[in-house]
């Protein structure tokens, strides 16, 4: 086990007669990589979260509930409503009128065994197309935070990986330089002492 002394903060920037230019370059590369990692992650995360939340707020304003009518018997039987768990639904064809008066048809979730003509509430966008129910403000915040966090981590990984790769290259170069210097000056120390 190697002995380690007390941790010295900011040791990479302290003056040291043995410190070479490569050590200083590595220190600044690490500092820049960490700064870019934090900055890219935070900015990308905040921008993405804001965009997602604004998009969901726009959906809450633009999307409207509309009453649609079943145009066919829903799959299942009326008895299956008592057998299936509460909230169980099936897909069935429905018809509704858009705000401009045009008639549309599509598939919506309904209770099993529902009769033709049964009213069902569906959500539509301004063009009259079926959409899902918009997210509530608290759901929108949660989704925005999740998507923003994922975007932030993804964006932060780019400068982090680039910094690690550059540091690895600098370290490899430094080791090669040490080998060259050892080969050059090692023979000058050549004499062994005998006791």
Please give a handful of descriptors for the protein shown.
5 strands; single chain; five-stranded antiparallel beta sheet; Proline rich protein membrane protein; alpha+beta
Write the layout of secondary structure elements.
Layout: H1 21-62, E1 64-70, H2 80-83, E2 90-97, E3 103-110, E4 119-124, E5 130-131, H3 137-185
Antiparallel strand pairs: 1-2, 1-4, 2-3, 4-5
Helix pairs in contact: 1-3
Organism: Streptomyces shaanxiensis
Protein name: Proline rich protein membrane protein
InterPro entries: MT1774/Rv1733c-like (IPR039708)
Describe the protein's architecture and organization.
- The structure is a single chain.
- With 195 residues, this protein is α+β, with helices and mostly antiparallel strands.
- The protein has 3 helices and 5 strands.
- The chain has helices spanning 21-62, 80-83, 137-185; strands at residues 64-70, 90-97, 103-110, 119-124, 130-131.
- The chain has a 5-stranded antiparallel β-sheet with strand order 3-2-1-4-5.
- A hairpin with a 5-residue loop joins β4 (119-124) and β5.
- α1 runs antiparallel to α3.
- It is rod-shaped and about 105 Å long.
- The two termini are 30 Å apart.
- The mean pLDDT is 86.
Mean pLDDT: 86
Distance between the termini: 30 Å
Unreliable residue runs: none
Q: Share of helix among residues?
A: 40-55%
Oligomer class: single chain
Indicate the proportion of strand residues.
15-25%
> What Rg is obtained from the alpha carbons, in whole angstroms?
33 Å
Main sheet strand line-up: 3-2-1-4-5
Structural class estimated from helices and strands: alpha+beta
Output the number of helix runs. 3
The total strand number stands at: 5
